[in-house]
Design a protein that fits this description.
Number of strands: 11
Order of helices and strands: HHEEEHEHHEEHHEHHEEHEHEH
Radius of gyration: 43 Å
Largest sheet: 6 strands, antiparallel
Helix content: 40-55%
Strand order of the largest sheet: 3-2-1-6-5-4
CATH class of the largest domain: Alpha Beta
Distance between the termini: 167 Å
CATH superfamily of the largest domain: Reverse transcriptase/Diguanylate cyclase domain
CATH topology of the largest domain: Alpha-Beta Plaits
Number of domains: 2
Structural class: alpha+beta
Number of helices: 12
Oligomer: single chain
CATH architecture of the largest domain: 2-Layer Sandwich
């Protein structure tokens, strides 16, 4: 039996080793399975981490964009009241495009900005009102020069201005192929706008604002540019209406010359300026000879027509820097900055001859055989250094011309004790406005009134003619 057990030893050993091998294989299999599961879990965790990192990066980007939009919106909201105030207090039309450009640049920080305004029609060029002109551009050295023009309906800017819609590139690209081709061929060279916002009042297009190179984080750039364009349109309309009202208030309703109130304000300003700059100022005060006779004989309607014709004749034949106004009744005044007594008398004599030779209706029936004027010339600082004294001196010279036979002009002469006595002259009480006036505003009103007198809009200019040489 012992021998039998000995024979079973190798078998048991083999069985034992087989069992151990199977057990080891099972353990290895289990360990490999767990390792693979762990690896799969690790890969899943890595993928999850990568996804979370991407989501975090996307969230950071969104947060950065939101913060940038908030900064842009806060900048716009902070700047808007100040910019609107600056626009509406401005009294010079030419400065409004520059203010709008600065507002757009501060708010949207674009790579380029154009501010265009609409031309106004003139008799010589009726189609002029169909054009927009570049009034402000940024940055300096822009590919589009100041003064460049584009017609309504041409190019992206003209197209948006004509249809009166705020449009971006997607809006332009959604147009029919033939329209897109025309817009590209008619646009400004070197400036492809991202957004165009027309400035519209009622049904009228006043101009447009175009921007390019916008930052991506700008919040609602179309809406912001729309608000800026609407604010600019409102400022332009308000200033135009104010200018027209001011100009109308400064103009005599019958003759369309400046009225007495405005003449007195401008005279006070010119006297101050002549003293500050040390130059002369001549004043020519004149009236129509025997005007009561003309009215009594021909009627007041004919008299009013003569006043209108005479005022227009003078306005067409004086220097652009002079100022002509109706002082009341048939009396007028002409200011000549920079003119001394000799030049003032020469200009006055030129106008006297011009009026006496003009074929006014019924002029031959006047006592002197023509419609004539008599006037006096006084200068600052030679004759007076304040408004009432200067006008009183010119008025005394006018009465001296009347006494000398009318149809003549005469300069004021200072009389001293011991000089030959003159016929007494009735004193005239000239009321001088003591209300302070800003010189720049008065000159702006004068320019606007001159434009109104010539039937032009408040942003147009035209010369009133130059003073004809006196031989």
């Amino acid at each position: 039996m012992a021998r039998g057990l000995l024979n079973l030893g190798p078998v048991l050993t083999l069985v034992l080793f087989s069992a151990l091998a199977v057990a080891f294989a099972v353990v290895v299999y289990v360990m490999v399975g767990r390792l693979q599961a762990a690896q799969r879990k690790l890969h899943a965790e890595k993928f999850r981490v990568i996804t979370l990192e991407r989501q975090a990066a996307s969230l950071r980007k969104q947060v950065d964009q939101i913060e940038a939009e908030q900064r842009s919106l806060i900048r716009f909201l902070k700047d808007f009241p100040h910019a609107a105030h600056e626009l509406h207090k401005e009294r010079r039309v030419r400065r409004i495009p520059g203010l709008l450009l600065g507002f757009v640049h501060r708010t949207l920080e674009p790579g380029g900005v154009l501010v265009l305004v609409r031309r106004r029609a003139v008799d010589a060029d009726p189609s002029r009102e169909r054009r927009l002109v570049v009034a402000a551009a940024a940055p300096k050295g822009s590919a589009v020069a100041l003064g460049a023009e584009i017609t309504l309906g041409h190019g992206p800017i003209g197209f948006a201005a004509e249809v009166q819609r705020v449009m971006d590139r997607r809006d332009f690209e959604s147009q029919p192929p033939e329209v897109r081709a025309a817009l590209k061929s008619q646009s400004f060279s070197g400036f492809v706008p991202d957004i165009v916002a027309p400035m519209v009042s009622g049904e009228e297009t006043l101009g447009a604002i175009a921007v390019r190179g916008l930052r991506r984080h700008a919040v609602d750039p179309k809406d912001i540019l729309r608000v800026i364009a609407q604010t600019g349109a409102l400022a332009l309309v308000s200033l135009e209406r104010l200018t027209e009202m001011t100009a109308t208030a400064n103009v005599d309703g019958l003759t369309h010359a400046f009225n007495k109130r405005f003449v007195m304000q401008r005279l006070a300003e010119e006297i101050r300026r002549s003293q500050d700059e040390n130059h002369n100022l001549a004043v020519f005060l004149f009236d129509i000879d025997h005007f009561k006779h003309y009215n009594d004989r021909n009627g007041h309607v004919a008299g009013d027509q003569v006043l209108r014709q005479l005022a227009r004749l003078v306005q067409e034949n004086v220097r652009q820097d002079s100022l002509f106004g109706r002082f009341g009744g048939e009396e007028f005044v002409l200011m000549l900055p920079g003119a001394d007594k000799g030049k003032g008398l020469a200009a006055a004599e030129n106008l006297r001859q011009l009026i006496a030779g003009h074929p006014f209706e019924f002029a031959a029936d006047q006592p002197l055989g023509c419609l004539s004027i008599s006037g006096g010339v006084a200068t600052c600082p030679e004759d007076a250094t304040e408004s009432s004294g200067l006008l009183r001196s010119a008025d005394e010279a006018l009465y001296a011309a009347k006494r000398a036979g009318r149809n003549r002009v005469q300069g004021f002469e200072t009389r001293y004790l011991g000089d030959e006595a003159q016929e007494p002259v009735e004193p005239v009480d000239f009321q001088v406005s003591t209300e302070p006036e800003a010189p720049s505003l008065l000159r702006g009103e004068e320019a606007a009134t001159r434009r109104l007198q010539n039937g032009l809009g408040p942003d147009e200019t035209t010369p009133l003619g130059s003073l004809r040489a006196v031989k």
